[in-house]
Every structure is written in C-alpha cells, then in structure tokens.
Design goal:
- InterPro entries: NAD(P)-bd_dom_sf, SDR, SDR_fam.
- Belongs to the short-chain dehydrogenases/reductases (SDR) family.
- Pfam families: adh_short_C2 (PF13561).
- It comes from Shimia sagamensis.
- The chain is 47% helix and 14% strand.
- The chain is an alpha/beta fold and 259 residues long.
- A seven-stranded parallel β-sheet has the order 3-2-1-4-5-6-7, with helices on both faces.
- Strand 2, helix 2 and strand 3 form a beta-alpha-beta unit.
- The chain is globular, with a radius of gyration of 18 Å.
C-alpha cells in the first residue's frame, strides 16, 4: 500500500538502533527523507549510510542528546520545515521505588516527557501552517500497565500521554495528528538490558531469562524493530489523518483488555 508520504521530511530521534532505527528504515522505504539523531556518532553514521545505500533517500545526521536544551536547539535548527516528527529516547534505568530521588525523576522527565514536548512545541506550528503533519511518540506499554521496576519510565511517559491527549485534539483541525506507539518487549538493546538484570537477580542464563519473558507474551516471542517501524510509518501516512490522540499497543497481546 502506498503511504502517500514520498518526498516528505522526517526527524526521527534516537534512531541509530532499536525501535528508532526501525521507524527510520520504514519511513525511508516509502521515500521519506530523514534527519536522524543519536548520541553516538559512529553508530549513527553507520545507520544513516546503510539507509542511504538501501533506499536512496536523503539522510542528514546530528549527534546530540535530545534530553538537553542544547540538543533540542540543534535538532530544531536542522529540522525546520519537517513534515513528520518521531519522538524517541532511551528509557530510564530499572530499580525500586526506594532507590529514586528527585534528580532521578528530573532526568527521566527531561528525556521521556519534556524533550518530546519541546520538539512538538517547536515543530508542530509549522506543520499547522502548511496544513499537514504527523507526530508519533514512542512511549511504553507501561502507561497502560505500569511495570514496578520501571517506575521512572511509568511516571514520565504517563505525563507525556496526558499532554498528548489534550494537545492532539487542539491541532487535528489543521491537518496535524499526534499519536503514541506503546511498545512491549522488542528485540532491542533495551530488552537485553532488562533481561541482563533478570539474569543477575535470579541467577539464570540469558536464554532462560528471555524464554521466561517470552512466555508472558501471548504471541510467544519478542517484537521486531521492523514490524514496529511499519506501524509507525502507517501512523505517519496519508491514510492516518483520522487517527488522533491514540495510544497504539505493540506488545504481542501482553496487556489483556477488552477495549
């Protein structure tokens, strides 16, 4: 299916690997020119070169930390006039509620709530003026089903979800949609980090930890960055203009709900 976005420009944050890279690749496969961002220069440039070679689209790169005001300013400068914004940032570390102090919460909010809001505020007005735009925020299944050891992520991403719920309905009339993608466990570095923590806590192998987690997922496996990216690309497509302020689960059925 043609998505109707060939020739559009997209800023995809934290896109050198994992879910962000899956989104960048999916958009590029439909002819979208990219601005890719990550903190690490080497991985970012390798990912960008691969996408240029495979899909023939223009790819600009900017290595910076999206959670900082300096990083956000750099991204806004290079991303002026983009049609698509994919917000993404690495999640806070796991722990227990007794572990976290104010600085931990501020860091989580900066990365997973305030950074996306800053980019939305900077880039959506231009989309509204042009009468078309798409924003997709990568959040987490934890906003629907809180994960005890990810309390920092639960809090920050739930805050962003609340912000989007109101904002999306204020800009939809100008042709701009804002939606959230809620990943469960996918085969990324984040999953490796979480599974490594389980191996240490329970004294089991990585294979055992992964099998244990996969058993909690009705699909019986981890998701892939490619299938996640394909869903992101659809939400960014011309066909998704009537999808507004939604939280789309990609968790293999792990969150059980009738609606």
């Amino acid at each position: 299916m043609e998505l109707g976005i060939k020739g559009k420009r997209a800023l995809v944050c934290a896109s050198s690997k994992g879910l962000g890279l899956g989104c960048a690749r999916a958009l590029a496969s439909d002819g979208v020119d990219l601005i890719m961002n990550a903190r690490g220069v080497e991985a970012l440039e390798i990912a960008a070169a691969d996408i240029r070679a495979e899909f023939g689209v223009e790819v600009a790169t900017i290595a910076c930390d999206v959670s900082t005001e300096e990083g956000q300013a750099k991204l806004v400068e290079i991303a002026k006039g983009v049609d698509i914004l994919v917000n993404n940032a690495g999640g806070p570390p796991p722990g227990m509620w007794t572990d976290w102090n104010r600085d931990d919460f501020i860091a989580a909010l900066d990365a997973n709530m305030l950074a996306p809001i800053a980019l939305i505020k900077a880039l959506v007005p231009g989309m509204m003026e042009r009468g078309w735009g798409r924003v997709v925020n990568i959040t987490s299944v934890s906003v629907k089903s809180p994960i005890p050891v990810l309390g920092l992520s639960n809090a920050a991403r739930a805050g962003l979800t609340g912000y989007v719920a109101g904002t999306a309905r204020q800009v939809a009339g100008k042709g701009v949609t804002i939606n959230n993608l809620l990943p469960g466990i996918h085969a990324t570095d984040r999953a490796v980090s979480l599974d490594t923590a389980v191996t240490k806590q329970q004294g089991i192998s990585m294979e055992e930890a992964q099998a244990q987690r996969a058993a909690t997922i009705p699909a019986g496996r981890y998701g892939t960055p490619d299938e996640f990216g394909a869903t992101c690309a659809f939400l960014c497509s011309d066909h998704a203009g009537f999808i507004v302020g939604q939280n789309v689960l990609l968790d293999g059925g792990a969150f059980a709900s009738a609606m």
